[in-house]
Every structure is written in structure tokens, then in C-alpha cells.
Design goal:
The protein is an alpha+beta fold. The chain has three helices and nine strands. The chain starts with 6 loop residues before the first strand and ends in a 6-residue tail after the last strand.
Length: 144
């Protein structure tokens, strides 16, 4: 499995307050297209995304009240990479919390927890890929 961290998914209950805090109060810039149901922020080579708590719990299969507030994501180049890296994590003792499958937004991913219960996702995305610097790149479809 790659030693990488591309995205930190934070369960959120008050998106408006988070937008005020990060975008308004701290002056950070959102990253990617505006998505009213979530907030993405680039932080160095990683992305922090605030996602509605209930949605993230349902997608990941992780009881977010019993685990840390974040689920870490590793983005890979191909769906086969998802399969291989997920299998390596499971072979190393990780616990599957949501099996690999096609997900919203064209994603292909699986979730697991490490021996301490920390959440991870291995994910292939049609628009977000690891770049040369190790951070995520955003490749939006050409609409022209």
C-alpha cells in the first residue's frame, strides 16, 4: 500500500458554520467546483473535505461516534490499484468496513479501519488523481 495521504474526510454537522470559519474567517479558498453539501480545501498537497456526518457514516460503514473524526483517503491511478492496495491492507490486518464498489460521483473505492479503528479509503476517481508532487490533481472534463 502506498505511504501517502491525499485527502482527509471530516464528518460535519453544520456546513454553513464551517464555510464561514474557513472561507470567511480564515480566508482559505475552496478547492474544486462548489458543492453545497460539502466543503473541499487544499492544504499543501492534501485536500480536506468536510462531508455531512450521516452520509459519510453510511458510505464508509464506520460508526463515526466511535472512531476518530477523520477518514483518510489514498487516491490511486486505476481501479486495479484500488483492488491491490485494499487487498494488501486487509492482508496486513485491516478490517473491511465497506467493501470495494462503485460509488457516487463515479468513484470506485473501499473503506477499512486499521487496528486502532482509524478509517481509511482507497479510491480511484475520474477527476482526482495523484500528481507528480504527491498531491491530488483535479482533471475536470472539457465542457467546450
Amino acid at each position: 500500500m502506498d505511504q501517502a495521504l491525499h485527502m482527509v474526510m471530516m464528518p460535519a454537522t453544520d456546513m454553513a458554520a464551517l464555510r464561514r470559519f474557513y472561507l470567511g474567517d480564515l480566508g482559505w479558498n475552496s478547492w474544486g467546483p462548489d458543492m453545497p453539501g460539502s466543503l473541499m480545501l487544499r492544504a499543501g498537497t492534501a485536500v480536506i473535505v468536510f462531508v455531512p456526518r450521516d452520509y459519510l457514516a453510511a458510505e464508509s460503514g464506520i460508526d463515526l461516534s466511535a472512531t476518530p473524526r477523520a477518514i483518510n483517503a489514498i487516491f490511486v491511478e486505476t481501479k486495479a490499484d484500488v483492488d491491490a492496495q485494499f487487498a494488501k491492507a486487509i492482508d496486513a490486518g485491516a478490517t473491511v468496513t465497506s467493501a470495494i464498489r462503485d460509488r457516487d460521483g463515479g468513484l470506485y473505492s473501499g473503506y477499512f479501519s486499521d487496528p486502532e479503528g482509524n478509517g481509511w479509503e482507497i479510491v480511484w476517481s475520474p477527476v482526482m488523481r495523484p500528481g507528480a508532487d504527491g498531491g491530488l490533481t483535479l482533471v475536470l472534463p472539457d465542457t467546450n
